[in-house]
Design brief:
single chain, alpha/beta, 8-stranded parallel beta barrel, 11 helices, globular
């Protein structure tokens, strides 16, 4: 990748260059893996939440071998204690959630405290209103501060809140995330407008490729409640699925149907 821009004008030029390299449509489609449960972040963010719901969430994650549980900061230590002996299941904590407009210092504090309590993954909301205003340097600095506060092996997922962005703004947000060396770009919080759609996921994947970042992954989240929803997102490039319906999705899974759906559903 190119050097990090130092002004909003330099960011705009870089983003424009990336945008010119992003195809108008999907040119190739990822192979759908058979281990779909390992792609699911088992999510519980709708409040109010009772502590025993966290216990159930973690037990379901263990039973179905989900990728992680995704929870509010105040429940991280409880989940980390339950999942202590199952290191393959991550503890994902939201940061700056759901607005994304809080001070960077507050996001850094949330991130550091979450990691201290046992979080292995952080789902942070970028300052998408600033992205819309073209304040790219500020958006980058905000993301980078959290990345530096929680370096690898902590996984950082940046939520764009794509339902509030144009296609060009999704490209801009994805480009900035790639430059900040985060692990995932994520579509939505699920708290602000419609959730994920396949076009957003596709644009994110193609943008990451145009940036030359082959390591960054895509998480689709928000409104994904069925096997059909899940397969459509995976088909266009999502490698993580954030959903509160993970148990039902797994129960409905049939490997033969997965392959059939993967071959038949087109991107719209």
């Amino acid at each position: 990748m190119s050097s990090i821009p130092s002004t909003d004008a330099e960011w705009a030029a870089l983003i424009s260059n990336v945008r010119e390299r992003v195809p108008d449509r999907c040119l190739s489609q990822p192979t759908i893996p058979l281990q779909v449960p390992r792609m699911i972040d088992h999510t519980l963010l709708k409040k109010p939440i009772e502590p025993d719901q966290i216990d159930t969430l973690c037990q379901e994650a263990i039973e179905h071998e989900f990728a992680s549980v995704c929870i509010w900061p105040e429940y991280v230590s409880r989940a980390a204690a339950i999942l202590h002996n199952t290191p393959k299941i991550g503890v994902a904590c939201v940061v700056g959630f759901p607005e994304g407009t809080g001070d960077t210092a507050e996001k850094v504090k949330e991130a550091q405290e979450a990691v201290f309590q046992g979080a292995t993954e952080l789902d942070m909301v970028i300052n998408w209103p600033k992205l819309k205003m073209g304040e790219y340097t500020s958006v980058y600095d905000d993301i980078l501060a959290v990345r530096n506060a929680a370096p690898s092996p902590t996984i950082i997922k940046c939520i764009l809140e794509a339902s509030q962005l144009s296609k060009d703004e999704v490209i801009a947000g994805t480009t900035i995330c790639c430059m900040a060396q985060v692990d995932f770009v994520k579509t939505s919080t699920g708290f602000n407008g419609p959730g994920a759609n396949v076009n957003q996921v596709n644009v994110m994947r193609l943008t990451a490729k145009a940036c030359g970042n082959n390591d960054i992954q895509i998480k689709a989240s928000g409104g994904i409640r069925t096997v059909h929803d899940c397969m459509r997102m995976i088909k266009v490039g999502a490698t993580r699925i954030g959903t509160s319906a993970g148990v039902q999705i797994v129960r409905d899974l049939d490997e033969g149907e997965i392959l059939e759906q993967g071959a038949s559903h087109s991107v719209t």
